[in-house]
Design brief:
Radius of gyration: 26 Å
Mean pLDDT: 87
Shape: globular
Number of helices: 23
Number of strands: 17
Helix content: 40-55%
Structural class: alpha/beta
Distance between the termini: 34 Å
Bound molecules: phosphoenolpyruvate, magnesium ion
Low-confidence stretches: 1-16
Length: 608
Amino acid sequence: MQPPGTSISAPDPTPMAAPMHVLRGIAVSPGIAVGPIVVLDTRGIRLPPRKITAEAVKRELERLDHGLEVAGREAEEAEGEARTRLGPQYADILAAHARMIGDITLRAAARARVEHEQVSAEHAIIEVLEAHATRLERLRDSHLAARAADVRDIEARILGQLIGQRPKSFQDELPTPALVLAQDLSPCETAGLDPNRVLGFATEAGGRASHTAIVAAALEIPAVVGLGKFLDIARQCRMAVIDGDEGLVILDPDLPTQVRYRAAAVERSARFHVLSQQANLPAETLDSTRVKLWGNIEFTAEIDACVKLGAEGVGLFRTEFLFLNAKPPPSEDQQFQAYAAVIRALRGRPIVIRTLDLGADKLGRYRESAYVESNPFLGLRSLRLSLRDPGLFRPQLRALLRASTLGDVRILFPLLTTLAELRAARAIVRDVAAELVAEGHAVRENLPVGIMVEVPAAALMADHLAKEVDFFSIGTNDLIQYTLAVDRTNETVAELYSAADPSVLRLIAMVVEAARVHGIEVTVCGKMGGEPLYTMLLLGLGLRQLSMPPHQLPEVRRVIRGVRIETARAVAAEALRLDTAQAVTALLESALRQALPDTPEPAAPAIR
Ligand code: PEP
Ligand code: MG
């Protein structure tokens, strides 16, 4: 059992049969995991255990002093920045924060707790500052009471420093490989998960196409998100099933359920094995229409799976994942090495390298303090950020252009919204290329440049954009979010997020038509492109290239090989006539069952 106050609370093993809780969330990363659970602390931060040993006191005092110093400096820097950007009013607040962090009484009180009560630095800070905030809140003076919020800001700043110093992540503290249950996991945290220790995860928050979901799928960790509040119940339980296909979490499953799920997991991997043996068969419909299948990667290690599972190339390399856990950001040379490794591993197969898509839910650590946006998905993200920050964009382009001579490389700009952005981005590419040539570097001429179509504005302007780019890549994850005005990470509106919405289908059809008229290639690289349910529809809409997480390739190939293009066209035409996402989904489900009756049933029909 974990000591009280730890970041992880594994419930007590108890021999009594507990009632089974079946929870429904959003399936975001396929697969089935059964095992013991650990519940992460839900303060939003990963707290270490409260108590420390006598031997650890000296080190803990050093950590405390160091944390206070760095947090104080950070507040002073923030003050300086606020003074120039926002004016004295805000800067004065931050100056007061810096003074308070440096206050000798705070340090003395926290040190006393570490020394005399053997409490970790984080808990010492929480206990001292929480007591102070509570005292302020009780005061009748509303001005003073409002200062409690300042105290909590200071607390968060110091804790951020202290926790940041800890080399270990929560998973290093897992007693055995386990299922992790948490309020939320950021894409950064998810990227750091070790699939050998974390068998699956489930979170209260999160939406269908969040980047946390995308990373989980890349790591092949079954995951369900958007379950709503359930951690209080989970803390009373010992084990769980995470069904990442159906979006179910079953807490304390009874024996027959466990048996059924374990059998389903075995069956699932056998089926995957059989299908992946067919990776070399052409992705061709029954009536000989050829489709190009590509892989999406976030990490260089995924190249192996792409190659093994028969991807003809990489249709989307999300380069921002090189940045998410890096502080400072990777240098031009480090990026060059990463791109070169991937290009070489592909041995001549094409690769589409997307420039940085940072911002919104993908904040690199080094940027966290720089940003506070109230609508980050509508804010300074992606290509907008790259255009605004040449210190970020130019080194990436230099690395990319240098690597472009090593293979069949294409560049992709994310979240493009206007022609003006496209022209600005292309001008920078030209400038960087000229700079490299002047320095004596080889640079590939006529490097293909494409754009992600993931904002309705770009889809609506596709006929114009098509004249100035070499290819389109439809990013349905964002396209759905912006078309339907549904935050892709928000579980409370997840019901409204659907690739089957007729408005989304119309936009896709427009983009495909613009590409056809102007003779450029078009791919779908959002989640929709890798979901067998949508394969017929996309083929019928005219798509001949799909890019997806490598592990989706076998199932999508199976669907392509099992349908006629005429049938797919009829399904797409019918879908475009329908007026709701529900009607489109029902049509696609029935068309898929009809064309491929051996499509597997959900793992646990009894529970559905
Ligand atoms: C998309 O939006 O569909 C896409 C592929 O990009 P990302 O998921 O990285 O935002
Ligand atoms: Mg996107």
